[in-house]
């Protein structure tokens, strides 16, 4: 285990009924890299962190009524996690790897008007993960024209 310092930024924390199984699955299916696990005296996973590029996802157990796996609440999600692959990475192969590990691919890889190719997958407990890679760098003007949107920095600009 290497010493881990968290730089300023965002990370997600996801709750699972079986966090040990989820930790192993996320590595196998999505290629997340184990950073560390905290085990309690009984060997249960108390907390863990996995890395992908410069990002971290925290993987843990359900621990309160407000921190539940989608599997415990009828499959509902109140958020999803977006993971951006590096330039030139093969998102179709990434999707194939996830599918082979048992991911439910809910949106097959498709190139979007803004230049990213994305797919969406559900893990075994129902968390929704979106993966994307930029296949064509576009300006805001280009994606606005193609998608029929107006891009601004702030709502009131």
Summarize the structure.
The protein has 157 residues and is α/β, with parallel strands linked by helices. The protein has three helices and eight strands. The mean pLDDT is 91.
How many E strands? 8
What is the general shape?
globular
Query: What is the count of DSSP helices, taking H or I runs of 4+ residues?
Result: 3
What share of the residues does DSSP label as strand, in percent? 25-35%
- Biggest β-sheet, characterized? 4 strands, mixed
Cα gyration radius (Å): 17 Å
Low-confidence stretches: none
Q: What is the first-to-last residue Cα distance?
A: 47 Å
Give the helix/strand class.
alpha/beta
Average pLDDT across residues? Answer: 91
Side by side, the strands of the main sheet go 1-4-3-2
Describe the structure.
This protein has about 160 residues and is α/β, with parallel strands linked by helices. Helix content is about 20%, strand content about 35%. It contains three helices and eight strands, in the order βαββββαβββα. It has helices at about 20-30, 90-100, 140-145; strands at about 10-15, 35-40, 45-50, 55-60, 80-85, 105-110, 115-120, 130-135. Strands 1-4-3-2 form a four-stranded mixed sheet, covered by helices on one side. The protein has a four-stranded mixed sheet with strand order 5-8-7-6, covered by helices on one side. A hairpin with a 5-residue loop joins strand 2 (about 35-40) and strand 3. The radius of gyration is 17 Å and the shape is globular. It starts with 11 loop residues before the first strand and ends in a 10-residue tail after the last helix.
């Amino acid at each position: 285990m290497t010493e881990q310092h968290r730089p300023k930024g965002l990370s997600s924390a996801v709750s699972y009924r079986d966090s040990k199984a989820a930790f192993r699955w996320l590595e196998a299916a999505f290629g997340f890299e184990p950073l560390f696990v905290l085990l309690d005296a009984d060997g249960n996973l108390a907390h863990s962190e996995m890395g992908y590029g410069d990002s971290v996802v925290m993987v843990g157990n359900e621990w309160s009524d407000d921190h539940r796996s989608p599997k415990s609440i009828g499959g509902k999600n109140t958020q999803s996690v977006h993971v951006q692959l590096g330039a030139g990475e093969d998102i179709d192969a990434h999707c194939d790897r996830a599918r082979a590990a048992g991911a439910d691919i809910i949106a097959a890889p498709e190139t979007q008007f803004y230049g990213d190719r994305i797919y969406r997958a559900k893990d075994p407990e129902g968390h929704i993960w979106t993966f994307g890679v930029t296949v064509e760098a576009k300006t805001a003007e280009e994606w606005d024209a193609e998608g029929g949107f107006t891009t601004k920095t702030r709502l009131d600009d």
